[in-house]
What we know:
The protein is an alpha/beta fold. It has one domain: P-loop containing nucleotide triphosphate hydrolases (Rossmann fold, 3-Layer(aba) Sandwich). About 40% of the residues lie in helices and about 25% in strands. It has helices at about 40-45, 70-75, 90-100, 105-115, 120-125, 130-145, 160-175, 190-195, 210-215, 220-235; strands at about 1-10, 15-25, 30-35, 55-60, 75-80, 150-155, 180-185, 195-200, 205-210. The relative contact order is 0.18. The model has no long low-confidence stretch (mean pLDDT about 90). Belongs to the ABC transporter superfamily.
Amino acid sequence: MIEFSHVSKTYRGVRALDDVSFTVEPGCVTGFLGPNGAGKSTALRVLSGLSRPTAGSATVLGRPYAELDCPAYHVGSLLDAGAQHPGRTGREVLTLGAMVLGLPRSRVGEVLDRVGLTGKESRRRIAGYSLGMRQRLGIGHALLGRPRVLILDEPANGLDPQGIRWMRGLLREMAAAGCSVLLSSHLLHEVEQVADRIVMIGRGRVLTEGTVAELNQGRSLEQTFLELTADADRSAA
């Protein structure tokens, strides 16, 4: 379970998050939507223990991320697919991750198979990877410890249609196994295809949340998103 409880974050007098509260239940894929600068990345950094909230709390499985015993066993995260050493191969990256977690080498092969990076692709240096391959590797790294929570920031960037379909199936499979999935993305149509619930954020505040059907009410998710974020911009002007 993921829970944001009245989280605010201020940087040098600028409020990036303003009293954000929502939950992601086990077995649920929650789409986290908002325009650039809305506060999505800040919220994910607070949740992942990379940034401390000014007020409120963000917890994973009932505890702050930093207080979890061996967090990577419980939480898999992909916040930046480019944050990988370009001189290492995909297999080397996952092998190092497995060593840190005390996992057997066999787990590396399992994950490479699951994300579709096998054969020559697993032995290629990351400098030669496409963005889609880097995304697959980042997702693979997040899955190493068999997490109960997944935190993904724009995981579909660079994926081709087959890759997006694969990712959609993976997220539904993880949710079916009881995982809590928080998915931040600009691809509204894809989020609409895979998410159980939606949280929309604008100007650092939660604008609305609910199932896709509850939010749309006869409109497309895109229309709902554009109307709500435009209203937030007008209110802040």
